[in-house]
Write a structure and sequence with these properties.
Layout lengths: L1 H191 L12 H4 L8 E6 L5 E6 L5 E6 L3 E6 L4 E7 L5 E6 L5 E6 L3 E6 L5 E6 L5 E6 L6 E6 L3 E6 L4 E7 L4 E6 L5 E6 L3 E6 L5 E6 L5 E6 L5 E6 L4 E5 L5 E5 L14 E2 L5 E5 L4 E6 L4 E7 L5 E6 L6 E5 L3 E5 L1
Antiparallel strand pairs: 1-28, 2-3, 3-4, 4-5, 6-7, 7-8, 8-9, 10-11, 11-12, 12-13, 14-15, 15-16, 16-17, 18-19, 19-20, 20-21, 22-23, 23-24, 24-25, 26-27, 27-28
Length: 509
């Protein structure tokens, strides 16, 4: 063991000595090695730089070659396109040459045709000159005929004027005789009826009728499905006419409450009704933009009046003639119709829709109530506005002319009922009630036959009756369960009728 350790120590010392010797030799030869390596390193750097430059030049050559190749491809393509274009141009030139030849042929043909037409025109001109000469001769004959005709017309007109003067004289004589007979009849009537009662079959009944204040519901009628918007009595009769949402017009006997007849044919809901003074025709204003004129006797439609472009909401008949009818629609027009001709004879245009209207007593004026709350008077012949007044702060819903024609009753959505003087358009009376609320834009109020009472329906189903002399409520009628839309008073003084939104009609006595 000791020998091994000694050997190891000897080996270590030997290795250290050799390492020390190697380091000494390496340090002695280091400068020589560095001197030899320096030129070789510099030459390597130069070769490397040259190699890099050569690579850059090679890349540039490749790029130049690529650009030249692309340019060559483009030029080859352009050459091909140019060659194709040249071929197309050559083909087009050939076609144009052939077309030019065709046009030359056509021009020669047109020239020949023009020569022929020129010759024909010369012939026509010569014929025209001849016809012109004939026309001048005919015009001279026409002038002579017109002069002769004028002489004949003047002669006929003078003869007609003479005949008219004779007719006027005869009419004056007849009117004088009629007045005398009427005076004699009234005197005879006064002598016969010392009790002061005027009976229905006697002269003067229509003017001296007396109305009674209704208090009892005599009949409750389920008249129309969906609602009843209009009721009107026949003139001086107890027959009631109703119109409703079910597109029917019905006639009722108010004594029995039974249905007398049904008029079918309306294309829309019936919004308003009017009856001629001979009780032969009833006119229905419909939501279908039409007016339907029914013959009460036959139940058939006499006329279907068309011309409005929106629903017709109001209608009235002249008190002077049964042939003239007024209508108002939501197309801002009021139309005057001639039932004998069956068409519109005048149209009045207003800037506000009309909800209700009526004729004046003489039939020369239209009284209309509008959505803007104004009451307007129009000339039926010219269609011009005569006067205008603010009647209500909200839309006018009803207009009713009194029996004597001196006053007109208006109702509005402001829940007021105003009585206007037709001559001055000043408010005479205003009727109101705490519970009275107008139900719709077409709620109709009415005046009694003797002009002493005013009746109007309400939203709560009540009907309020005012006295004109007292200017106060004299009766409140309860019988409806839905808003009341329309009221009408019989020309006999009683009964009174009312209709509501559920289609129920009440007869009041």
């Amino acid at each position: 063991m000791i020998e091994d350790e000694v050997s190891k120590e000897a080996i270590k010392r030997t290795m250290k000595a050799l390492r020390r010797r190697h380091l000494l030799e390496e340090g002695a030869h280091g400068p020589a090695f560095a001197a030899l390596l320096k030129p070789i390193t510099l030459q390597g750097f130069e070769w490397k730089e040259k190699a890099e430059n050569l690579e850059l030049e090679l890349q540039q050559c490749y790029k130049a070659q690529s650009r030249l190749s692309e340019q060559l491809v483009v030029e080859v393509a352009e050459s091909r396109n140019t060659k194709a274009l040249i071929q197309e141009k050559e083909t087009l030139i050939t076609d144009l040459q052939s077309e030019i030849e065709q046009k030359r042929d056509e021009c020669s043909q047109l020239k020949e045709s023009l020569d022929e037409k020129t010759k024909a025109l010369d012939v026509v001109l010569s014929e025209n000159h001849a016809l012109k000469a004939q026309l001048e001769e005919l015009m001279i004959n026409v002038r002579n005929t017109d002069a002769e005709n004028k002489l004949l017309v003047d002669r006929i007109m003078s003869e007609k004027l003479e005949a008219a003067e004779k007719i006027n004289e005869i009419s004056m004589m007849y009117e004088d005789l009629r007045v005398r007979c009427q005076i004699n009849s009234i005197e005879q009537l006064a002598r016969q009826h010392v009790d002061g009662v005027i009976r229905q079959n006697e002269f003067g009944f229509e003017d001296l009728v007396e109305s009674t204040v209704p208090s009892v519901c005599k009949h409750t009628i389920t008249a129309h499905a969906g609602g009843c918007g209009s009721v009107v009595f026949q003139w001086n009769s107890d027959k009631l006419i109703t119109g409703g949402q079910d597109r029917t017009v019905k006639i009722w006997d108010t004594n029995t409450g039974l249905l007398s007849s049904t008029l079918n044919g309306c294309l829309g809901s019936v919004l308003d009704l009017a009856i001629t003074h001979d009780n032969k025709s009833v006119i229905a204003a419909s939501s279908s933009n039409h007016l339907f004129v029914f013959d009460i006797g036959s139940g058939r439609i006499r006329h279907s009046l068309t011309g409005h472009t929106d629903k017709v909401c109001a209608v009235d008949v002249s008190r002077v003639s049964c042939r003239h009818v007024l209508s108002a629609a939501y197309d801002r027009t009021i139309k005057v119709w001639d039932l004998q001709k069956g068409y519109c004879v005048n149209t009045i245009i207003s800037h506000s829709n009309c909800n209700a209207l009526c004729f004046s007593m003489d039939g020369l004026t239209v009284c209309s109530g509008h959505v803007d709350g104004n009451l307007r008077l129009w000339d039926t012949q010219t269609g011009k506005l005569i006067s205008e007044v603010s009647a209500h702060s909200q839309p006018v819903t009803s207009i009713y002319l009194s029996r004597n024609g001196n006053t007109v009753l208006t109702s509005g959505r402001d829940n007021l009922h105003n009585l206007f003087d037709m001559r001055t358009l000043e408010v005479c009376l205003t009727f109101r009630a705490n519970g009275n609320k107008v139900a719709s834009n077409w709620s109709r109020s009415c005046i009694s036959a003797d002009d002493n009472y005013v009746a109007a329906g309400s939203m709560d189903g009540s009907i309020y009756v005012w006295s004109r002399s007292k200017a106060d409520i004299v009766s409140t009628l309860k019988g409806h369960t839905a808003p009341v839309l329309s009221c009408a008073w019989s020309g006999l003084g009683k009964p009174m009728a009312s209709a509501d939104r559920s289609g129920t009609v009440c007869i009041w006595t």
